[in-house]
Amino acid sequence: MNDKHGLIEQHGYIKQQQDGLYAIRVRTIAGNLTSFQLHNLADLSDRYGNGQVHITTRQSVELHWIPEKKLDSIFQEINELGLLLAVRGPRILTVIACPGIRLCKKGICNTKNLATQLDALMVGRSQPSKTKIALSGCPNSCAKPQINDIGLHGVIVPTADSGCIECKTCEKVCKFKAVSVQNGKPHIAVEKCIGCGLCVRICPNCQHQFQFPQSHQSKIPQ
Ligand code: SF4
Ligand code: SF4
Ligand code: SF4
């Protein structure tokens, strides 16, 4: 391994308190691994470490008790699984994300796609300090974007249109009392609306009653 000290400083090798032993932190994209990768990481832990796999608070996977002299070969085997080591120190760290619209019925945006793009563009860049990024698919904020250095969550911005049948379902579903139906039309109090999109999904005629940016419209599950 070239410049081993530099790699250890920057990447997912963490010195354990036990002399000569390391934890290796493997990077995921939004916490996703294939069953093949996970199975083989478990096998690496059996062969090089203590037979355990540790899931970190930032959706990475750690293998512990790896002898220093084995770092080169385990790094190569991790690479062969199509995986990279996590990043450490004053850099942009692994992007974490909730499942988003791919799985969650409340999801508004595709967190996995965004995490993949951000991972390719930003992870590992030098920064003045550790920089953490978290993505949530909707304002419920399950990935806690508010307590990361950069946090994003999906929103739908409903705007009222004509043709309402005045069923008032949107009024009932909004926990923030941001919708009121008046004179045959829903009115949105933008200062109360958090952009959860529930009123859009529940409206029996939502494609006509609410307008929202095309990028959001195309992501509403049918
Ligand atoms: S933040 Fe929203 S989309 Fe993501 S898991 Fe939570 S409820 Fe689902
Ligand atoms: S749910 Fe749709 S149709 Fe019903 S009152 Fe609201 S905007 Fe009108
Ligand atoms: S998007 Fe959510 S918060 Fe905003 S008006 Fe609709 S239901 Fe209420």
Can you offer a commentary on this structure?
The protein has 222 residues and is an alpha+beta fold. Helix content is 27%, strand content 18%. It has 8 helices and 11 strands. The chain has helices spanning 4-10, 35-48, 71-80, 111-122, 169-173, 198-202, 206-209, 214-217, and strands at 13-15, 21-26, 53-55, 61-67, 96-97, 133-136, 150-153, 159-160, 179-182, 185-188, 210-211. The strands form 4 sheets. A 4-stranded antiparallel β-sheet has the order 1-2-4-3. A 3-stranded parallel β-sheet has the order 5-6-7, covered by helices on one side. The termini are far apart. The structure holds iron/sulfur cluster (SF4) (3 copies). The site of one iron/sulfur cluster (SF4) has 13 residues, from helix 5.
Number of helices: 8
Here the CATH topology of the largest domain equals: Alpha-Beta Plaits
Question: What is the subunit organization of this protein?
Answer: single chain
The radius of gyration is: 23 Å
Q: What is the N-to-C order of secondary-structure elements (H for helix, E for strand)?
A: HEEHEEHEHEEEHEEHHEH
CATH architecture of the largest domain: 2-Layer Sandwich
Which small-molecule species are bound to the chains here?
Answer: iron/sulfur cluster
Low-pLDDT windows of residues: 212-222
What is the CATH domain class of the largest domain?
Answer: Alpha Beta
Helix content: 25-40%
Shape: elongated
Structural class: alpha+beta
Binned strand content: 15-25%
Biggest sheet overview? 4 strands, antiparallel
Whole-number average pLDDT?
87
Spatial sequence of strands, sheet with the most strands? 1-2-4-3
Query: How many separate structural domains?
Result: 3
Strand segment count: 11
User: How far is it from the N-terminal to the C-terminal residue, by CA?
Assistant: 51 Å
